[in-house]
Amino acid sequence: MIPNNPEPAGAGDRSAGTLVAIGAGPKSLAVAAKAKVMADLGLPAPRVVIIDQHAVGGNWLPLGGWTDGRHRLGTSPEKDLGFPYRGAPHRAQAAQINAGMLEFSWMAFLVAHQTYTEWIDRGRPNPHHHVWARYLDWVASKSGAELHIGTVERVRVADGGWTVAFRTSDGAVETVDGDGLLVTGPGSSDEPLLDDPRVLSVADFWNAVSRREIPASSRAAVIGGGETAASALDELVRHEVMSISVISPAPTIYTRGESYFENSVFSDPTGWPSLPAAERRDVIRRTDRGVFSVSVQENLLADDRIHHLRGRVTGARRTGEAVSLTLGNPGCSAVDHSFDLVVDATGGRPLWFLDLFDAETVDELELALGSRPDVSSLENSIGHDLAVTGLSQALYLPNLAGFAQGPGFPNLSCLGELSNRVLRSAVDRASSRQAVSR
């Protein structure tokens, strides 16, 4: 068992308990790096323990099952782990904390690898996924992040906090205790719509790409209208496919808004909770969910093999040598379409982490929500600190915070503000525990 002990002397002030983070991606590393900066300044900060099944930045590498690593990041890398470099968990020391976070910036990474000038001269392109993973790994190393590689098998509430059990590569089961739990990542990418060799999950698709085993197809379909589907489509057009249908419920394939006005909503969530619910949903729908990045849209514009089919897939079955998908639209009769290759790129299950919770933990969550946990109840429960309101044990769910707190939290648009809120909460909760114990 990994004890919940403070770090060795000289490691800074880690008097704000322990925060366990599932997933070694940008959200967890943004929190870990800022906690390191705070502790080095002598400020209270939690010990951050990160657990990941694969590696740092694993979901940006082929081994994570979400990409082959060769496609480009949909967000500017200048929106790095400290962006937008405004505010801080300790507001009086905000300038010092943000200056410290510049040491973990995208620019600092390029300078350290002597590639900054080249990146500027090439027009500051978005990096390939595998390069973004290298940046995250560099931050993890530079910050001394406490990382454990293993598959999380069980999460339970315990003694006012959390106990997370994970299995290492040698089969051993270890546990780590924490005062708070941060859940990141999209979960598994290996669950296809239909168990059929002609229907590929995201992981199946990228595995086939890496093995150069994408079959020639006369009529292919990509299900999904978001960035996961966009990356798959961007790859599929490079193969021998006669026609490709993009299936999504939207009337068309939307392009992500990249003007100042759209971007500012993502970078600065101030005032977001005061917007009417319908307007918040509309902003998310138009700019984040079910949209392709501008770069992918530009790549696909001239390819006349690509078409859009509006509808939600309500059924799938094998029919001879083809896969038949049933598409439904409100107010219309269901229609069947046949394909010889289907890529299910609808993305991960938002509530994948509930599979890890034991029965008692699910009960605690249900009591806090006042109903069985579902996407709607959890989205509405996320407070300013990105944690579930009403749950005594801090459960931070930034991937579900878009509706309640701002559309930038589930993605890479305001990682610095995300870390501010999580760390401020961890410090405040630790102070409250200490006051009660006196």
Structural features, described:
It is a single chain. With 438 residues, the protein is of the alpha/beta class. The chain folds into two domains: 18-187 and 349-437, FAD/NAD(P)-binding domain (3-Layer(bba) Sandwich), CATH 3.50.50; 199-256 and 293-344, FAD/NAD(P)-binding domain. It is 32% helix and 20% strand. It has helices spanning 26-40, 94-101, 106-112, 116-121, 129-143, 202-210, 227-236, 260-267, 277-287, 294-300, 359-369, 375-381, 402-405, 415-437; strands spanning 18-22, 47-52, 146-149, 151-158, 161-167, 173-178, 180-183, 199-200, 220-223, 244-248, 254-255, 291-292, 306-310, 312-319, 322-328, 335-339, 341-344, 394-396. A hairpin with a 6-residue loop joins β15 (322-328) and β16. The two termini are 28 Å apart.
